[in-house]
Design goal:
Protein name: Cell division protease FtsH
Shape: elongated
Keywords: Cell cycle, Cell division, Hydrolase, Protease, Repeat
Largest sheet: 2 strands, antiparallel
CATH topology of one domain: Serine Threonine Protein Phosphatase 5, Tetratricopeptide repeat
Strand order of the largest sheet: 1-2
GO molecular function: peptidase activity; RNA binding
InterPro entries: E_motif (IPR046848), PPR_At4g14850-like_plant (IPR046960), PPR_rpt (IPR002885), TPR-like_helical_dom_sf (IPR011990)
Number of strands: 2
Number of helices: 29
Helix content: 55-70%
CATH architecture of one domain: Alpha Horseshoe
Pfam family, one: PPR
Strand content: under 5%
CATH class of one domain: Mainly Alpha
Radius of gyration: 32 Å
């Protein structure tokens, strides 16, 4: 005799469908899962609706979809409210909507948990208006204290982050100091990031030293803080310390430090970072590959940069731009223009930086016809409006070729106001090609624009000296002495055997100062013996 068996509500395959989704599924995957739930006839089942709502809060999702899921739940739980509040926070909607959901939850006599307040504060932190008026976030803080969640580390972290986003560092500090023992590495990282954002690098440095534990975010924040505040050497040393502690850096740190090495021309540091990448078998991403090419190109190793470029499997437009600009700066004009043609041939669309590299290549090689062609192609072919850098390359190209009048007309016809550097470039051309009257007018204009810039006086005096107008030379020198009380000393960096040496003009503080000046005297004598004279005015 056959027995009737009750059919289970869900088959094993239906019940486990959510388990097969990735930890962070895409919008398409979530919708496919929802479609399966509907086909199986379980579209009104609360457990599935809650799962779908939770998934929709993890990715950028249309709010109306999340709301439809929420309203389909007969008796929404705290979990359901939290998921919808999180959806609003991710969608950057007004925090008042999140707070309205919180109020609705309280009216149903549902007790919030620590996740509720974390999502609410996250919603408040992302709203730009809160930076001016943080009353809503302060109200949430009051509820946190009232309901006894001030000692929960997740909530404390959210509060610290919220107040820093509002620009209220004092309140963040007070929250941190209320219970310093109730903190984790995220708490310290939030305080560290806030100090860095406010430009208090030394405060951040002290806090970094006091941290009970550090993770890669802590090191990354500290390194970024040094770099953003111009303390490049400190940032590089911090990275060395990080490697000594055997902390594995992330991509952001590596790209940042490669950029610093490129800016300062510190090849040894750049090579050290490259060797670190190889030793860790770090994947050669597009960002890291591009940063390495840029570093080697700016540090004078254009051949190494080209080898890396040719070896990259995947390149984006910025990879090509860095290589084109690098070749141009190394006077490899033909290679730069050939690479630009390959760039176009592979289907990439140039941007403004691409044409800066191309026009710079033409300028350095004196390719006037090609420069005019690419300038016209940029404007008419790709609709890119010329910026100061593009005009600068064209003025330099024309000025070097002796087409001073044409360069002057280009400046006068610019769609943006020319900067002093543009006029200074033309002034140099006037001196080189003997356009005394034009040079005199430009020199006087530059002095009016920036009377504290000593270079303009030097250039104008140089023009007078070339024409042997010694009275005008003396007049300009006296004028410079009257108007420029003190000059900011220039400085330079030299990297030698893994150490960075900093020099100031007239510096005698270096350990090897006497040897350096002896070598300078020797160089000066050899230059004189070779029949070369330095140009003065």
């Amino acid at each position: 005799m056959l027995r009737n068996k009750t059919k289970p509500l869900l088959s094993n395959s239906q019940a486990s469908i959510f388990r097969y989704l990735a930890p962070q599924p895409s919008l398409r995957q979530i919708k496919q899962t929802h479609a399966h739930v509907v086909v199986w006839g379980h579209a009104r089942l609360t457990v599935h609706l809650l799962s779908l709502l939770s998934l929709s809060s993890t990715v950028p999702f249309p709010l109306r979809y999340s709301l439809s899921l929420f309203t389909s739940i007969p008796f929404p739980t705290v979990f359901a409210f939290n998921s919808l509040i999180r959806c609003h926070a991710k969608a950057n909607s007004s925090p008042s909507l999140s707070l309205s959901l919180y109020s609705a939850m309280r009216r149903r006599f549902l007790n919030p948990n620590q996740h509720t307040f974390t999502f609410l504060l996250h919603a408040c932190s992302k709203n730009l208006k809160i930076k001016v008026n943080n009353k809503l976030g302060v109200q949430v803080h009051a509820h946190v204290i009232k309901l006894g969640y001030a000692c929960h580390v997740f909530v404390r972290n959210a509060l610290i982050h919220f107040y820093f986003e509002c620009g209220d560092a004092d309140s963040s500090q007070r929250v941190f100091e209320e219970d310093a023992l109730c903190s984790d590495v995220v708490t310290w990282n939030s305080m560290l990031a806030g100090a860095v954002r406010n430009g208090d690098v030394r405060v951040a440095e002290k806090m970094f030293d006091e941290m009970p534990e550090r993770d890669v975010v802590s090191w990354s924040t500290m390194i970024m803080g040094y770099v953003q505040n111009g303390l490049f050497e400190d940032g590089l040393e911090c990275f060395r310390d990080m490697r000594k502690k055997r902390v594995r850096p992330n991509e952001a740190i590596l790209v940042t430090l490669l950029s610093v090495s490129a800016q300062l021309g510190l090849l040894c540091y750049g090579r050290f970072i490259h060797s670190t990448i190889e030793a860790m078998r770090f994947p050669m991403t597009v960002h890291i590959g591009t940063a390495l090419i840029d570093m080697y190109a700016k540090c004078g190793c254009i051949e190494k940069a080209r080898i890396l470029f040719d070896g990259m499997v995947k390149k984006d437009v910025w990879t090509w731009n860095v290589m084109i600009c690098g070749l141009a700066s190394h006077d490899c004009a033909k290679e730069a223009l050939a690479l630009f043609d390959r760039f176009i041939g592979e289907g990439f669309r140039p941007v403004n930086v691409t044409f800066v590299g191309v026009l710079n290549a033409c300028s350095r090689a004196g390719l006037v016809g090609e420069g005019k062609h690419y300038f016209k192609l940029m404007v008419d072919g790709y609709g890119i409006q010329p910026e100061m850098e593009h005009y600068g390359c064209m003025v330099d190209l024309l000025a070097r070729a002796g087409l001073v009048d044409e360069a002057a007309k280009l400046i006068e016809g610019m769609t943006i106001a020319p900067d002093p550097v543009m006029w200074a470039t033309l002034l140099d051309a006037c001196k080189l090609h003997g356009f005394v009257e034009m040079g005199e007018n430009i020199g006087n204009k530059l002095i009016e624009l920036d009377p504290t810039h000593d270079g303009h006086y030097v250039q104008l005096a140089g023009i007078y000296a070339k024409e042997r107008k010694w009275e005008d030379v003396v007049r300009i020198r006296e004028l410079m002495s009257e108007r420029i009380a003190g000059k900011v000393a220039g400085w330079s960096l030299v990297e030698l055997q893994g150490r960075v040496h900093r020099f100031v003009a007239g510096d005698r503080e270096h350990d090897c100062s006497s040897d350096i000046y002896k070598m300078l005297e020797t160089i000066g004598l050899r230059i004189t013996e070779a029949g070369l004279l330095t140009e003065t005015f």
